[in-house]
């Protein structure tokens, strides 16, 4: 039963909080969270004795609804303060007493909640934290682990974020078209960050990492399911996430080891997700705007489909060149230089890599180390050793160590050959 | 190694505030019009341009890539004279421009090195963008 409850919590917590917050206002988001948490406590007690009900979700909705109504009745807040501010449509289902946990209302509430927590008044860390808590049902512990920090920090961050929601008067209400437009960019960015946090996370907990990616994908899909948010770049973002997620099984070898692209077993790539990626990439190919998500999705697509030859890398290089003009980041610059190496050779890549001046990053040293192999092995080893001291994870240090050993072995073999 | 796309994700702040903006103006010989070059040649040429701009962009120093200009047009002069060119008194014409940022004119000039316009027999003009105070 513990497993069932945990699953239900993860699945239903966010839905219920969204519906309640939408009905009473975002200023009651904490109360909504508390009441939903209490509902789960009641479930644990009641199901222990009476057994699991036939329809656990319906049970939860019903009990939560009662708790919420009781809370607001008891506090008289409903009559004195809230009702005057409630929108007409909300007053209509007020008459039906029970809170409306229908599929349609859940979906609408969650979408609006997503757009609300992505309000520009909040910082991106606060936005991600809130999204994980109130939309994805993550525990504070899990969020802390995902961010590589402690519980207190996350608690403080969420508390401040909710304060901000209140003080800025941010509401969970249908936005005007202009608002959706501007809010959507931010929302896409938050989903993108959430996904990359999972995909590149420093946390070793693999299940947590997958959960982060899966939730990001779910939120992205949510946008494509609503007419007003189903824009080309949202589809491009979903495509991008599908392509990356398709390699999840292939890149993981136990808790600590990461298998890098070149060494991955292609049969472990998830074809279903690749097809889905293609579908959303197709849907993204309308209109005039080429967003960074479009370009990144096409790069990820190349890595899923094309043979690892020069032609692929020319295409990848071309896309990275464009991506740099749309959205520069050091990571894109490094990836672009790696593509240049694969497409045009070591020499031109080395020339450009030397100019990048990203010496604070271990990826930069790894790239230079890699480019110098065979050109100047001493320099290559020097760069790789620096990379190792700067590396963030054990998996990366292991990879670099392996690479160093290979260089030494190759060097020895080559010397042997000349002796013979 | 590996596809860095599976690894790299982070950001670094550069010395944004110390940067000035410059315009690189590409002047090309007039005969280097599209019709004298084969389709293959054009493709190779635009790849060269793209990779060259990409190299500057990789250093985070492109502000915006200007549009490329068609090799035709009109020139207006004093007295209502309109001609089809030449566009400048010399045999060159403006082919396009690129807005970049660099710490100094010298650095901007260094960035302009390797520009395909030079291989095509043209020139690159490096001009600081005027700052209004």
Automatic annotation (TrEMBL), chain A:
<dbReference type="GO" id="GO:0006352">
    <property type="term" value="P:DNA-templated transcription initiation"/>
</dbReference>
<dbReference type="InterPro" id="IPR013324">
    <property type="entry name" value="RNA_pol_sigma_r3/r4-like"/>
</dbReference>
<feature type="domain" description="RNA polymerase sigma-70 region 2">
    <location>
        <begin position="13"/>
        <end position="76"/>
    </location>
</feature>
<dbReference type="Pfam" id="PF04542">
    <property type="entry name" value="Sigma70_r2"/>
</dbReference>
<dbReference type="InterPro" id="IPR014284">
    <property type="entry name" value="RNA_pol_sigma-70_dom"/>
</dbReference>
<feature type="domain" description="DUF6596">
    <location>
        <begin position="183"/>
        <end position="284"/>
    </location>
</feature>
<dbReference type="Pfam" id="PF20239">
    <property type="entry name" value="DUF6596"/>
</dbReference>
<protein>
    <submittedName>
        <fullName>RNA polymerase sigma-70 factor (ECF subfamily)</fullName>
    </submittedName>
</protein>
<dbReference type="InterPro" id="IPR007627">
    <property type="entry name" value="RNA_pol_sigma70_r2"/>
</dbReference>
<dbReference type="InterPro" id="IPR013325">
    <property type="entry name" value="RNA_pol_sigma_r2"/>
</dbReference>
<dbReference type="InterPro" id="IPR036388">
    <property type="entry name" value="WH-like_DNA-bd_sf"/>
</dbReference>
<dbReference type="GO" id="GO:0003700">
    <property type="term" value="F:DNA-binding transcription factor activity"/>
</dbReference>
<dbReference type="InterPro" id="IPR046531">
    <property type="entry name" value="DUF6596"/>
</dbReference>
TrEMBL record, chain B:
<dbReference type="InterPro" id="IPR011008">
    <property type="entry name" value="Dimeric_a/b-barrel"/>
</dbReference>
<dbReference type="Pfam" id="PF03795">
    <property type="entry name" value="YCII"/>
</dbReference>
<dbReference type="InterPro" id="IPR005545">
    <property type="entry name" value="YCII"/>
</dbReference>
<protein>
    <recommendedName>
        <fullName>YCII-related domain-containing protein</fullName>
    </recommendedName>
</protein>
<comment type="similarity">
    <text>Belongs to the YciI family.</text>
</comment>
<feature type="domain" description="YCII-related">
    <location>
        <begin position="43"/>
        <end position="130"/>
    </location>
</feature>
């Amino acid at each position: 039963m513990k497993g069932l409850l945990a699953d239900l919590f993860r699945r239903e917590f966010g839905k219920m909080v969204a519906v309640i917050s939408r009905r009473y206002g975002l200023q009651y988001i904490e109360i909504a969270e508390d009441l939903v948490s209490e509902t789960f406590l009641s479930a644990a007690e009641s199901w222990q004795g009476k057994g699991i009900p036939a329809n656990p979700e319906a049970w939860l909705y019903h009990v939560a609804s009662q708790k919420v109504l009781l809370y607001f009745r008891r506090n008289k807040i409903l009559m004195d303060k809230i009702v005057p501010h409630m929108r007409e449509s909300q007053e209509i289902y007020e008459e039906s007493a029970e809170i409306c946990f229908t599929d349609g209302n859940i979906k609408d509430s969650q979408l609006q909640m997503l757009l609300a927590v992505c309000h520009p008044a909040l910082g991106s860390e606060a936005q991600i934290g809130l999204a994980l808590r109130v939309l994805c049902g993550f525990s504070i512990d899990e969020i802390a682990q995902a961010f590589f920090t402690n519980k207190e920090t996350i608690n403080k961050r969420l508390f401040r974020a909710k304060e901000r929601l209140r003080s800025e008067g941010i509401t969970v209400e249908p936005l005007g078209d202009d608002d959706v437009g501007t809010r959507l960019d931010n929302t896409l960015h938050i989903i993108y960050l959430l996904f990359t946090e999972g995909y590149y996370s420093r946390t070793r907990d693999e299940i947590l990492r997958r959960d982060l990616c899966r939730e990001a994908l779910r939120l992205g899909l949510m946008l494509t399911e609503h007419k007003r948010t189903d824009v080309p770049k949202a589809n491009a973002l979903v495509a991008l996430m599908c392509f990356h997620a398709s390699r999840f099984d292939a890149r993981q070898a136990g808790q600590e080891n990461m298998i890098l692209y070149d060494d991955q077993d292609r049969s472990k790539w998830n074809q279903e997700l690749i097809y889905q990626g293609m579908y959303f990439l197709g849907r993204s190919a309308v209109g005039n705007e080429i967003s960074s998500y479009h370009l990144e999705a096409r790069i990820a697509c190349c890595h899923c489909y094309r043979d690892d030859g020069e032609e692929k890398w020319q295409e990848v290089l071309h896309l990275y060149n464009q991506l740099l003009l749309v959205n520069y980041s050091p990571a894109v610059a490094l990836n672009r230089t790696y593509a240049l190496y694969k497409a045009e050779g070591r020499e031109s890549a080395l020339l450009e890599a030397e100019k990048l001046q990203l010496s604070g990053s271990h990826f930069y040293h790894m790239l230079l180390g890699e480019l110098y192999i065979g050109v100047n092995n001493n320099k290559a080893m020097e760069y790789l050793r620096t990379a190792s001291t700067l590396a963030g994870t054990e998996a990366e240090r292991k990879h670099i160590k392996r690479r160093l050993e290979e260089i030494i072995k190759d060097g020895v073999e080559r010397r042997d050959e000349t002796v013979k | 190694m590996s596809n860095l796309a599976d690894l790299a994700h982070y950001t670094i702040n550069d010395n944004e505030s110390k940067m000035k903006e410059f315009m690189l103006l590409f002047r090309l010989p007039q005969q280097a019009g599209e019709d004298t070059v084969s389709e293959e040649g054009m493709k190779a040429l635009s790849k060269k341009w793209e990779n060259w701009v990409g190299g500057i962009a990789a250093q985070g120093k492109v502000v915006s890539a200007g549009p490329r200009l068609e090799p035709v047009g009109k020139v207006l002069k004093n007295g209502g004279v309109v001609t089809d060119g030449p566009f400048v008194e010399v045999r060159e014409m403006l082919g396009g421009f690129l807005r970049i940022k660099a710490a100094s004119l010298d650095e901007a000039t260094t960035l302009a090195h390797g520009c395909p316009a030079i291989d095509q027999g043209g020139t690159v003009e490096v001009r600081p963008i005027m700052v209004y105070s």
